Amino acid sequence: MKLSKQNIKSILVFIVLSIAVTLAANAQCAPVAKEGIKKLAPFTHNGKLNTVTVILDEPSEIHLAVYRGLNYKFQIGSEAALGKVTFKILDDQKTEIYNSATSKDPLSWIFFANSSQNLIVEIYPAEKGKQGCAFLVVGIQEPKKNAVRDL
After folding, report:
1. Whose CA, among 25, 42, 75, 144, lies 20 to 30 Å from 19?
2. CATH number of the CATH domain containing 96
3. Can you give the pLDDT at residue 17?
4. Domain that holds residue 32
5. For the segment 38-75, what is each residue's pLDDT rounded down to a tens digit?
6. Separation CA 43–CA 138 (nearest Å)
7. Which of 84, 83, 78, 113 is nearest to 98 (CA)?
């Protein structure tokens, strides 16, 4: 199948617009994410701002590594246009470890890493049909003696 010059131009315009929309959404998310960083206290922010564009009812994924022997706090949020979000934590085998929908605090999760591993954070819109920017910020803390260990 040969593509005409017009088809190639259309495809390039689509790609450029897609990138522009993603960058604009992430730029809108930065101020909201900064508020999320404040909620990490007393944990120390790891310095990374993880943003995703949540499109309708499909989950958006963020892949993270956690390291053995540290306490973590995952803080999540979203821009006003998206509304509330929920999230799931999966291991690299896609086994569910945590689901915020069943939590008292659906926007954060605190845990101790018993092992170093890769995690997948799936972010979902709480309301069907919504789309926009969501973020995840990560806080780290050295464990205190006799701390409870749970991951």
Report:
1. 75
2. 2.60.120.380
3. 43
4. 5-141
5. 999 999 999 998 999 888 778 899 999 999 999 999 99
6. 9
7. 113
Give the distance from CA 70 to its chain's centroid.
Answer: 20
Where does residue 47 fall: left (phi above 0), alpha (psi -120 to 50 degrees), or beta otherwise?
left
Residue 150 lies in a domain: no
pLDDT at 23: 44
151 domain residue, yes or no? no
pLDDT at 144 over 80: no
End-to-end CA distance of the chain: 51
| DSSP secondary structure letters along the chain | -PPPHHHHHHHHHHHHHHHHHHHHHHHHHHHHHHHHHHTTTTSEE-S--EEEEE-TTS-EEEEEEE-TT-EEEEEEEE-TTT--EEEEEEETT--EEEEGGGSSSTTEEEEE-SS-EEEEEEEEESSTT--EEEEEEEEEEPPPTT-----
What radius of gyration do the chain's Cα atoms show? 18
The total number of structural domains in the chain stands at 1
